[in-house]
Amino acid sequence: MSLKTLITKSVQYNNWVVNKYLDWLGTKSDEQLNQEVPSSFPTILKTLNHIWQTQEYWWSHISERNDFDFEKTFSNKEDIFKAIKKTVRRNSRTM
Fold first, then answer.
1. Cβ distance 33 to 44 under 8 Å?
2. What pTM was computed for the model?
3. Which of 90, 73, 82, 75 is nearest to 26 (CA)?
4. Of 31, 37, 44, 68, which residue is least crowded by CB atoms under 10 Å?
């Protein structure tokens, strides 16, 4: 398997996973997404911010922009879902 095929399949799988968890989490209330849970991050919303930041961070390196701002986060469900979906769409188009 070529490197391009491997990367393309990885991006396709990542997109599938992201859409599955956003569909499921989209049914949860803001209260549930901001409830404290025992995890690496204290809430689901903060975990989603971390996932978005990680994908954006790596994409900034892959695209050789290296311009990611770690200070940027989202405070509500709609904004973080929109940001994650935008990242997924962009990465899919690029592959």
1. yes
2. 0.77
3. 82
4. 31
